[in-house]
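Continuing the batch. This is chain 6 of the set; chains 1 through 5 are on the previous pages. Same settings as before, nothing changed between runs. Recording input and output for traceability.
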Amino acid sequence: MRKLLLIIKREYLAKVRNKSFVIMTFLSPILMVGMVVLIAYLTKVNDNDHKVIAILNESNFFSNEFVATTSTSYVNFDDVSLETAKDSVASLGFYGLLYIPDEIHIEKVCDRSFFYTEDAPSTDITEKIDAVFQERLRQSRLLELGLTASEFEKVDTQFDIRTATFDGQTNVKGINEIKAFIGGGFGYLIMMFIIIYGGFVMRSVIEEKTSRIIEVIISSVKPFQLMLGKIIGTSLAGITQFGIWLVSASVLLLVAFAVFDIDPSALNTSAHLQTGMGANMAPTIPTADQTVQLYAQELFRIPWVMLIFFFLVYFLLGYLIYSSIYAAIGAAVDNETDTQQFIFPIILPLMLAIYVGFFSVFSNPHGPIAVGFSLFPLTSPIVMLMRLPGGIGEGGVPVWELVTSILLLFGTFIGIVWLAAKIYRVGILMYGKKPTYKELFKWLKYD
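Output for chain 6:
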């Protein structure tokens, strides 16, 4: 045990005292926040690019349908030819020209209309123009069927089904997707942590193996203890860095609240909002402000303490599993170039968990695909975290699924550590030979 603790201490101090580790620990939060601010700024600059569109309307079917917005305005051309309008738009530097020809029937008008631009037009602009034409066509077709203007307005009224719980509390749409995104964010952190710090373990083993230091170390310690010490020591260094990132991000967030005059405590008032009227009465229709408060209320209802606790559980077990595999790969090869053939099969389950998790949990968090991937040990650290924001027990993840997932994860960790240790004890003394999957399988059979 004493030797294991010495190895853990040595690995931990070797990582945290590394100059690049210290620099990136404090620089990464600043870079990430700076990137977000830069993206927001560039998006704002891009949105401020005002587009002017000229309209040459020769028909009698369109008048005030094209409404100016903060990013788009329209200029009407009258009593000019199409070629003259094109030349004027080009010389004035307008974004484009919408030509609406003169025809007897609106169907022919829409069919012969064109939108001229210097380059390929923005999809956002064309969609807005398409929407105007589509709406006008719908009106014309319904009127031709005998509907009056008032009847058309009644037909065209948008309908949204109201949702509520059995006790009368109003639900908000899309909250399940928001919860899945929150859980997916935790899962994505686990995936990135595994890839980054698992690679640290692998490179550490390769460095000691190529420098022959490993031959001296294993003369006084068992290979299994050495592998376990490296995994735990690197894990603690990673957790230290992650903790510093969390504190730094919190401080930067508070600074952002102060700079932009945001009061986070104001959101707590939403927790007291009651829009229901009881189990036997119909829920009221929330206003726009109440809808925003309902979303805030639902976010506050997410069991954050439970979610963070199980994030740490799945983070620890998931990292230990994958870092054991990374250590075994590092012991099997002589340089980092030879690891490429083994890395992709490791990353594949993580990528699969992210993509399949989003598709399955979004549509049906309790479906067979979501449940299966949340139980499978190599994907459960990510997929299960996508399901947990919905809670545990009634309406959320069943307790037996959560317990089974953790037990399978722990059992898989023990099994993989045992198999990785067999590869590790043979591979750390192998030099000058490129390993294959067949040879690794042989190493597993050695006693």
